[in-house]
Amino acid sequence: LNEIDVVRRLQAGDRSALSLVSSTYAEAAIRTAFLITRNRAAAEDAVQDAFVQVIRSVSTLRDPASFRPWFYRIVVNASKRLARNSNRSLPFDFTTHDQIDLSALSPDEAAIGTEEIDSLRLAVAELNAAHREVIILRYYTGLPEEEMAVALGVPIGTIKSRLHRAREALHERLESNTKPPIPAGDGRADRMQEPEGVE
Amino acid sequence: MIMTEERKIKAALKVEASQIRLPSDFLERVNRQADGVAPVRPSLWSRLRLGPKVELAAACLLLIGLVGLAAVRNLNHMQAPAGSDNGSGPHGVASKDPTIDSQVHVQFVKMLTEKTGWLLGQVAENKGVVLNSEAGDSQWSKASPEQLLPDFNADSTFSEHFLDDKIGWIAASSRKQGASTDTITIARTTDAGRTWAKATLSSSDTGKLFLQFTDPQHGWLLIASTPSAGLMQKTLYVTKNGGATWNPVVSQDKALPASGFVTGMQFRDSMVGWVSMLYRDTADIPLYRTQDGGITWQLEKLPIPPTYQKNHYANAYPPSFDGKRGMFLVQFVGADKVFLAAYQTADGGTSWKSTTPIAAQTPRSGLISSISNALNIWVMGENGDKLFVSNDAGQTWNTVTISSPVGSSVIELNVVSDKVGWLLRSSDGHTELLRTNDSGHSWVLVNVAVK
User: B246, A197: Cβ pair inside 8 Å?
Assistant: First the structure.
């Protein structure tokens, strides 16, 4: 069965087709959601919500061939909603430098090295939400720009410019993170610019 | 960007994403939720969704509401009388006029009693609004000037502390487009929101804020950075003049450790305080105490029941005090189960003893709980279908089954008595405030609007 047939079965109410969709998309979706929310529980909730939304709304999808960007739009929206929650109530999940596991990488990728991978993780994490989203969808999820436009609900021109600015911001982060810290007593003064509140 | 750099970014994202796996029962969960079998975010509330225009605009504006009486009623919009207070302080703005008649999207609720409390919310206008109100069942009024917190939006990090119905502070972080640092605005009122004054700080990285005052003069602001590479920098500021000026607390050594995700901060007086954390890479309970106003910190030496000393890690949450009596919550997280325990003190936190942990499936990455005094504790279950309630500081617990589950997206729980409480949850891109009058068995939507 190709994807269009699977989507048509779903649209016809065939719930068994969901397992086929899940086998193609669920793992990538939960990881995309995790990259956006940076919280495991929120990512699980987001993807679960997204699949329920698929069941309930797939009949409204006019073109079954456009399922992938439509699906990722649901995932991204659910993730952003739950990320807002995370901001208030849930912590970000993170691994420490010495916990980085390169086993997910090909030998070529692993050759990049733990240190550089860690710098990149840090730089991506420091991007603002809009920039992080386009970086994630482009470089992790692998959506082409046209599908990113659908997934994020913005014109393709916006995607292009946002990607451009996100790459620039990433470069800036990488450069600033590799600069040595400003020496300061206990290492705090480099974070805070104004020592005293101003009326 | 050259291709090799793209490959490196892809590799870094792949490593980051490999931390999570699809739950083995994922499809089963989806099907149960779709069929309405599992506890889910109830579709009842989705009928109340605003139009997309309103939702979009709602993401932009801040409003603070002093609530006369919690308004819980029906699903119709409630209208409050126009703001009636005038007044000005250093940054005070008269809060008359408003022509705004808006649905309020609550970001924070702090009820002080069953009838009075504070709300922080957004309304469907892209400008700041302040509301104030006399007590009243459905009366919510402006209690802050327009643009109180610059550039506040749905993603802003903020923290708040209200001592009573007159005195309160709100700290919020914002970053202007292209700026390299965050501006943290700390606004304060001593007259129930008639007038506000502000102080500002600058921070290069603001992940979370924790604000607390022990009296009208003494307060602390803890800035925790966005966690990266396992570290979360913590910077503490102190004020001794009610928030007019803030100074960094400089520690030569024994500062708060960079490791650990802060869950809360609680000072008992101007010298003694605690910071609680989540930190899974330690065998200890991550609760730190200061006895010198925050200059030095020591890890509390807390007894861990033998069963939980291995194969579990502990999440600590901030203490609550009523005189010298106090308690705080700890989650012992195992591979499959989460256990909840209260630690009690009768000597102001000098010594603590553990109650017997109970199995309580709660979110392992952050407890949603409320302690109305040092005795009455409510903890929300993982799926929003249960509450774990104790009326004796965690000595014994009751499990309350919620008749219509409130879902797993609860942001905040606020309990004022053994019967009455509020919760705030996220639903389809906006927030909803719900109230219970029957000890958490049932919850009713509080429709918050302001005119």
Answer: yes
